[in-house]
Amino acid sequence: MSKMDKKTIQQKFQHHNNDTGSSEVQVALISKRIELLTDHLKTHKKDHSSRIGLLKMICARRRLLDYLKRSDKSAYQKVIGELNISR
User: What's the whole-number mean pLDDT along residues 20-46?
Assistant: First the structure.
């Protein structure tokens, strides 16, 4: 993921200009990394260490989404809708 991709994602989900760590931004960035790693694993089926990293990222995203659901349901619905994450 290039710096431009990361910056674009941050700008789309941030609350204010310097927001780089809100739950929405973190979920969006992790989702992009999950997408890239999933594509990698489609061609490299025996890359087990990357598969373990993918599972850890999925768990981290799930925890962030659970927190977001508890604290701000409207933001949770927005993030789920824009990232096409099925629940």
Answer: 95
